[in-house]
Amino acid sequence: MSVRAALVAFLLLVNSAHGQGFADLGRDAEGFAVPVPGTAFDFPRDHGAHPEYRIEWWYLTATLTGADGRDYGLQWTLFRSALRPESGEGWDTPQIWMGHAGLTTSDAHFVAERLSRGGIGQAGVTIDPFAAWIDDWRMESQVEEGADALSDLTLTARSQDFAYDLTLTATGPIVPQGDNGYSVKSDSGQASYYYSQPFYEVAGVLDLPGGPIDVTGQAWLDREWSSQPLDADQTGWDWFSLHFDDGAKLMGFGLREADGDVYTSATWIEPDGTPTPYGDGALELTPLATEEVAGREVPVEWRLELPDRGIDIETRPLNPQSWMDTLFPYWEGPIRFSGSHEGRGYLEMTGYQ
Amino acid sequence: MIRAALSALLSHWWRHKVQLAALMIGLALATGLWTGVQAINQEARSSYDAAASVLGQDQLDRLLRADGALIAPQAFVDLRRAGWLVSPVVEDEVRIGGVRLRVLGIDPLTAPPAAAAVDLTGDGDLAAFIGDDRLVFVSPETAGRLPSDPLTVRLSDDLPPGVAIADISTAWSLLEMEGFSHLLVWPEQPYGVPPLEDAAPDLVRIAADGANDVGRLTGSFHLNLTAFGLLSFVVGLFIVHAAVGLAFEQRRPMFRTLRALGLPARHLVGLLGGEMLILAFMGGALGIVVGYFVAAILLPDVAATLRGLYGAEVSGTLRLDPGWILAGFAIALVGTAVASAQSLWRLARLPVLAPAQPRAWSMATSRSLALQAGLGSALLLVAGVLAVFGHGLLSGFAVLATLLLGAALLLPAVLMALLRLGASFARTPLAEWVWADTRQQVPGLSLALMALLLALAASIGVGTMVSSFRLTFTDWLDQRLASELYVTASTEEEAERLRSFLQPLAHAVLPIRSVEARVAGAPAEIYGIVDHATYRDHWPLLQGRDDTWDRIAASDGALINEQLHRRAGLSIGDVVTLPNGWSETVVGVYSDYGNPTGQVIVGLDALADRYPDLARLRHAVRIAPEDAPALADRIRDEFGFTMRVINQDEVKRLSLDVFERTFLVTGALTVLTLGVAAFAILTSLLTLAAMRLPQLAPVWALGLTRRRLAWIELARAVLLALLTWLVAVPLGLLLAWLLLAIVNVEAFGWRLPLFVFPLDWLALALWAMLAAALAAAWPAWRLARIPPARLLQVFAHER
After folding, report:
1. Would you give the end-to-end CA distance of chain A in angstroms?
2. Do B386 and B454 belong together in one domain?
3. B101 shares a domain with B184
4. Pairing mode, if any, of strands A211-226 and A152-158?
5. What confidence tens digit (pLDDT) does each residue in B195-254 have?
6. Does the beta carbon of B82 lie under 8 angstroms from any beta carbon of chain A?
7. The domain boundary residue, chosen from B599, B625, B654
């Protein structure tokens, strides 16, 4: 998963004249850095924040099964948005942080949202030891020396009506998306830096109004930062992160354009972590059924075809009403898929009016 | 039958247009003044509520530091990271281009929905709000007063006047402070947050409060206005009562005829009730128009007063509100009902064959006079008991009410006694007749005279209060502003240069340094001063000790102003808690009129120790008064216009200006009330004129000319006004004492000495006599021109 609802949110937030020409290589008109192809990731440095880029996120979704045998899904996201390409300390620091937490059951969908400014310690990311937080929501590294900081995490969030507390252990490597981490988002070349950790095994407790429930399952972390990741005429996107039963993973998205065209992109990830990126057109996305969600028609069932891998599957949501009723609302929830392959995953959809 | 009866009844008003006008004017004045005052109060209250609810303070709990100091930014972050949903607010006042602005700094990212003071949902609004460190939201009215220069102003219709909403960091730079006044607590907190005592041991939680500080602070002021409105209303009702009474008396033959023709008494009363209802509606409508204009004219001054006294911002423009329009109609109906109840009651019990001749409708027997006097005395007794044992503002007003009502009820008896005394000096038959006839008239005029008494007493009372205040205030200004020049530099370097420049020229240069802080849970100022005769000799101490100034000079102790003394209950020897764990013993209390906030004075060194970074920009300069203007010019020449030089005289003029505006409203209401009372006399005299013909005709027949009779009538009215004034003087003084000793202390936080101004009373006596003469002029003129045939008729008329 990647280009997120947060994009809309933050493009609204920052009031930028996005999509305009490049002032020079590596900088946009307002002085923000822009991704350059062929740049290698530098860990653990790149697990931290990149304040010189306009937007960035730490985006985790988990598909879970409870001790009661039921399916659950949860989301934990920390977004960063810069008003200006500066960081620093204090209340006039031009960095804004936003947290979203979601918890989905078959008959309920819980949402919470937090906002904070940077520079004061209420929200932020530290590299060593790795921690990302807003208020008391935390994603924290538990690793010993040597291992990748993201390979062992604890994750907490809580709100008025739900809370969760999980431990995540990676069973595979970090995976760069797109061209070695340079993920192109449109024909005109908008792009982001993008990597994932799709191999988490999860255990923990969900606190729900009905009482605590022990859960286990899988989780997927996306890291992405950019300054102009979307073309001006792109109206929304449909994003999939899929855990196949045989241990393979698939990331795929379609960016919808105003004229009805869809720009697609996908990465096939072998169980050992070897990625194969697919450019526009390789992945085909077809909406199968819509549902009225929050007063609008949203396609909640999809057909995904990636002929190159013999994939032809149909997805169904755990809860079609997985609506994130946040400052800038979107649909995000756990799914199951069947057809040529079976497994579970997460779907995000934005831009449905 | 009913229609015929109704047209017969209404025809009366067509034939007596002046009576109709009197009734309408009386009702309109009563309703108008009352409604006007209510409209002002409501406008002010809605301004307060808007101010209080601007950040949802009326719905959200708040966290404050127990010692009243600012909350450190880190404390907020710690609470958030412990899971508490709180949002910071910094709040203080600042002057920008001479406009006082209440700046509310908020954090839009954490603010609860109930605290959404301004709409930031538009494209880029939030980014600009946070990113532009000059951006403030204000109401259009406030924007009109603000200079555009240092600020980026955006408009928000929902904001109360004088309030600016800004981002925390913007507010900090405007207010030159760093920290939070309080934290707003979201109504719902997440699962299992730690107890507040653990998360923030320094903070206390204050429950959301529907009422608000400004509302409480200004409550007494509005009670004051309401009392005046009520007084005007009562006085206006006297007019209505007189007009209604007259109309009923004059229609007695008609009533008898209608009843004789078969109209049931129930129907007659119903018709007259309906008639009164219609008249009440008409008068009420007129009154609401009057009220609107009264309010619209007075509101700017009321707003200035409230701003000057309490720092409360009230919109200077009046909005039409259905609430007070309805209240206006209601009060007109109630007033008419009260004024006509007696007449209707009598009518309902009128025997069909009762004599049709007019009977003086309020001719009181000596028994009812005694009853009235007894009731009046009882009320005065209650007033006395309340004055001695009562506490608080409400009891103060109860004393005022019982005192005024008791005195009014006693008035006829007192006037009778005075007239009897006067009669004992009469030497000619004519004089004896005049005295006796005047006594005869007292019951009929008593209501109008009571109105005059109330108006005069109010005028004397309020006048004495204002004049006492003015005298004290002027003296106080002379003491307080002892230095000849006040000079403020714009930078430290300039200030340094100024001090060396003044060294050889001035007798003394006294640095003034101050800091805004929270003392006893409210905003206050702390001043640091040096030891100098200027303070020792002039400072207006209310309480002091022999060593007060030595203690201040030694930075051991603090002076507090009277407001803080009364509000926080601090006196000499008590310890006043200042920010950051600092506390000082109170060594004196000084008067500080016209200042809504608390003030503390300490030695300059003590202040400098606590606030080492405080700018040293302000100076008081001592020099021979005659040399002050020249020195001011030299400073301006030397430093240009960045140096602010204020002459003592200018400050005084400015302060007195604020003061004058403060009492303009009460002054205006006094004059209006007096006007209403004069009108009441006029209508009463008109009522009596027709009834008194049987008394005058015999005297005329004995040889007194109509002209002479008219003069006597005029003189009689003036005499009664004079006697009423005599009663009003002591009553007014009592009123003044109550206002100064009880009401003012509660309302403003200071107590003033009472000064008497006999010349003002004499002037008022002249006004009262003039008003009575004017009121009596028309009836007297009519008497002088009455056809002799009418007088003769008295002897022929069936009686």
Report:
1. 21
2. yes
3. yes
4. unpaired
5. 888 888 878 787 775 444 555 556 656 766 676 677 677 767 777 777 787 788 778 778
6. yes
7. B654
Q: Could you tell me if B714 and B594 lie in one domain?
A: no
Residue B44 forms part of a structural domain? no
The total number of structural domains that make up chain B: 3
Q: β-strand A343-349 against A330-339: which pairing, if any? A: antiparallel
User: Is A117 close to B81, i.e. CB distance below 8 A?
Assistant: no
Q: pLDDT at position A58, please?
A: 97
User: A96–B80: do the CB atoms touch at under 8 Å?
Assistant: no
What are the counts of helices (DSSP H) followed by strands (DSSP E) for chain A?
1, 25
Helix axes B265-310, B322-348, angle to 10 degrees: 140
State which residues form the domain around A242. Answer: 5-349
Which 8-state DSSP code applies to residue B791? H
**Residue-level pLDDT at A22:** 33
Q: State pLDDT tens for residues B376-386.
A: 999 999 988 98
**Domains in chain A: how many in total?**
1
In three-state secondary structure terms, A200 is: strand
Are B730 and B755 contained in the same domain?
yes
Asked if residue B584 is part of any domain, the answer here is yes
Contact flag B131-A83 (C-beta cutoff 8 Å): yes
Closest-CA distance of chain B to residue A16, Å: 8
Range of A152-156, B17-21, B536-540 with top mean pLDDT: A152-156
Among A8, A10, A11, A15, the strongest candidate for a mutation testing the B interface, having the largest count of B CBs within 10 A, is: A15
Q: Where are the beta strands (DSSP E) in B107-211?
A: 135-138, 152-155, 163-167, 182-185, 203-206
Strand partners, B514: B527
A244-278 pLDDT, tens digit each: 999 999 999 999 988 889 999 999 999 999 999 99
Residue B89, CA distances (Å) to B57, B76, B172, B364 in order: 11, 10, 11, 66
The amino acid present at B378, given as its one-letter code, is A
Q: Are B603 and B668 within one domain?
A: no
Q: Are residues B391 and B503 in the same domain?
A: no
Q: Which residues of B touch A90 (CB under 8 A)?
A: 169
Does position B358 have pLDDT exceeding 60, yes or no?
A: no
Nearest by CB to residue B83, choosing from A91, A92, A136, is A136
pLDDT one-digit tens code per residue, B491-546? 778 888 888 888 888 888 888 888 877 787 777 888 888 888 888 888 888 888 88
Please identify among residues 159-218 of chain B the ones whose CB lies closer than 8 Å to any CB of chain A: 167-169, 172, 188-192
Name the residue type at position A136.
D
Instruction: Give the span between the Cα atoms of A51 and A47, in whole angstroms.
Output: 12
Q: Which residue has the higher pLDDT, B402 or B563?
A: B402
Supply the DSSP string of B719-746, one letter for each residue.
HHHHHHHHHHHHHHHHHHHHIIIIIHHH
Residues of A in contact with B169 (CB under 8 A): 90-92
Where in the sequence is the domain holding B604, given as residue range(s)? 479-654
Distances (CA, A) of A283 to A25, A316, A345, A348, B261: 31, 18, 17, 16, 104
Does residue B346 lie within any of the structural domains?
A: no
Residue A163: which CATH number? 2.40.370.10
In this structure, the answer to whether residues B443 and B493 fall within a common structural domain is no
In a domain, B283, yes or no: no
Same domain, B484 and B378: no
Can you read off the two tokens belonging to residue A352?
């449905």
B82, B109, B169 ranked by CB distance to A92: nearest: B169
